[in-house]
Design brief:
The protein is mostly helical. It has helices at residues 4-16, 21-41, 48-71, 78-94, 98-116, 123-155, 160-163, 170-184, 193-199, 202-226, 234-253, 258-282, 285-320, 335-348, 355-368, 373-397, 412-430, 432-436, 449-467, 502-527, 532-559; strands at 166-167, 227-228. It has 21 helices and 2 strands.
């Protein structure tokens, strides 16, 4: 293996030359490219699962590293943390025992914390960074340490091949699930994602969502492969993943911040993957195989389209200095960004001929064809989640409508990384078995050539309609002849979810008052003058209660849409 050499050179370059950010990004791209090649051919003594996730890290790292050449800023330790983050994630699937895996897991957490804290001057960034770090240590690292500590005490080793087939108590398996679910953003442990993403740089968000969350998926699948007894947690995994899909897709609808909306969308998509894992534990035969293929394929596909969308949000924020949905007219001068946005939106919504359609279809088939009522309901919720996702991303596409925006297209390196992922969004839909081959999995593609051809025609037509000049068409809303700003007549994101009925409004007010009460309690507690250590102990618990109150406030109006009618 030699892929680590460019990464180490990038780390040294970041330490010695803080302004050499382009060199750091280029070396990281080289290391990621070598990792792609070696994961498929040269790395010995690893199985298909490790090859697949090492390949995923390499592809995501290559795209984001190329993008970072034109995007990343030399902020304090960011030039060091970026290649360290990629290198640690590469070694997690390559580790052959849980001890080594956990060491690189901690390096991944700390380096990602540095990336989240890039704009550390902002109090909002500091609060989000502290929440992220404490959540990862308290609800991710500690449960995993306790579980692996018990396993070592009982078995005397942490090597995968020597632990194969060992049965563990349910509480130990639950600790592992708790740790991996926290890292993956599974409800109700998702609260750190919508706080960390809005403050993190877009290249860091692309890696956090596209690659780091998949390390939780790898950890789950590796633990399921090694240990017996996971069937006892299959039902809770299915239930929580179904709730995750619904909560993530609903909360994405009502957001006014681009990256916060995408963070909730990441929650939603990890719900699909964990639903496939839960289905894998419950099913047998061909449907079990379909569920595993769906989990693997959607892990890779989510890396492509969510990494693409987060990087596109970086294009917009770099061009406008804003991250809200009130921007208009970007399509006039950002044609490439607009076209790639359409590819990303169609992919994340599961529309052919994009990769999201194929992987979601496998999950739908495994759940809806199972005959198990719980899985059938979960599959129906997953279908609804895709519809809500498309509705949420309509707001994102509206950024490109209208006129009068004086912006410039993103630099070439940024577009190159995005074009790479955009192409994969299409190619991985047409050749899914090529992606699954490193894992030793093969499926009979459940998509006919006519569906793929129709999807390509639809995609090309939509892109052409969006980016070509539209003679005689006006994008500005009709103002009924009044001399007022057109923006006053637009439908705002917060109004897209319909009017709330009276019971829902009252319930929503209860949620808001709960948030206000908890905020006052926290302010009173903070004014007493306690120091940092005791805050560490209660912060996660208080934030969890606060997050549940926010959940009531934000989601209940959508959940009970027109309930009283």
């Amino acid at each position: 293996m030699i892929f680590y050499i460019p990464f180490l050179a990038a780390i040294l370059a970041g330490l010695c030359f803080r302004r050499g950010i382009k060199v750091v990004s280029a070396l990281s791209a080289v290391g990621s490219g070598i990792l792609i090649f070696e994961s498929l051919t040269r790395i010995p003594d690893i199985d298909g699962l490790s090859r697949f996730f090492a390949f995923l890290v390499g592809v995501g790292g290559l795209a984001v590293s190329v993008y970072s050449i034109g995007y990343m800023k030399p902020r304090h330790l960011v030039p060091v943390a970026f290649p360290t983050f990629l290198l640690s994630m590469a070694y997690i699937p390559l580790a052959r025992n849980f001890a080594t895996m956990l060491i690189f897991w901690e390096i991944m957490t700390i380096s990602s914390y540095v990336l989240v804290m890039a704009e550390y001057e902002s109090e909002k960034t500091r609060n989000a960074g502290m929440l992220y770090l404490l959540t990862m240590q308290g609800l991710n690292s500690v449960p995993l340490l306790l579980a692996f500590g018990y396993i070592y005490h009982v078995a005397g080793t942490l090597k995968f091949n020597m632990l194969m087939g060992i049965s563990l108590p349910t509480w130990v398996l639950f600790l592992m699930f708790l740790g991996f679910a926290t890292k993956g953003g599974i409800f109700p442990l998702h609260f750190w994602l919508p706080e960390a993403h809005p403050v993190a740089p877009s290249n860091a968000s692309a890696l956090l969502s596209g690659v780091m969350l998949k390390m939780a998926v790898y950890g789950m699948l590796r633990s399921i492969e090694v240990f017996n007894g996971w069937e006892s947690l299959a039902v809770p995994i299915v239930v929580l993943s179904t709730l995750t899909i619904m909560v993530g897709s609903l909360l994405a609808l009502g957001q006014n911040n681009i990256k916060r909306m995408m963070a909730y969308s990441s929650v939603d998509n990890l719900g699909y993957i964990f639903l496939a894992i839960g289905s894998y534990l419950l099913l047998d035969g061909e449907l079990r195989y379909l569920a595993l293929a769906g989990a693997l394929l959607h892990s890779f596909n989510h890396m492509t389209f969510k990494g693409l969308l987060f990087m596109l949000s970086g294009n917009i924020m770099k061009a406008t200095g804003r991250g809200d949905f009130g921007i208009r007219g970007l399509g006039e001068n950002m044609k490439v960004t607009e076209g790639l946005s359409l590819v990303g939106i169609l992919s994340i919504s599961g529309i052919p001929p994009t990769n999201g359609f194929v992987s979601k279809l496998l999950i739908y088939m495994a759940t809806l064809s199972s005959g198990i009522p719980m899985l059938v309901i979960a599959g129906a919720v997953a279908l609804l989640g895709s519809t809500l996702t498309l509705a949420a991303y309509v707001k994102f596409y509206r950024l490109f409508t209208g006129t009068g925006s004086k912006v410039e297209e993103a630099p070439l390196p940024m577009l190159a990384g995005e074009l790479f992922l955009g192409a994969l969004c299409i190619l991985s839909a047409v050749f899914p078995n090529a992606l699954l081959s490193p894992a030793g999995v093969r499926i009979d593609v459940p998509v006919s050539s006519s569906v793929i051809a129709s999807g390509f025609a639809l995609l090309l037509g939509v892109i052409a309609f969006s980016i070509l000049p539209k003679k005689g068409m006006k994008s500005a809303p009709w103002t009924t002849g009044e001399d007022v700003p057109p923006e006053l007549f637009e439908i705002r994101p917060e109004h897209m979810v319909g009017e709330f009925s009276k019971p829902v409004f009252l319930f929503q007010m209860a949620g808001k008052r709960s948030v206000m009460f908890l905020r006052r309690v926290w302010e009173a507690y903070s004014s007493i003058g306690f120091e940092h250590p005791d805050w560490v102990f209660i912060s996660i618990l208080s934030r969890g209660i606060y997050g549940l109150a926010c959940l009531v406030k934000e989601s209940v109006g959508v959940v009970f849409w027109k309930f009283s009618r």
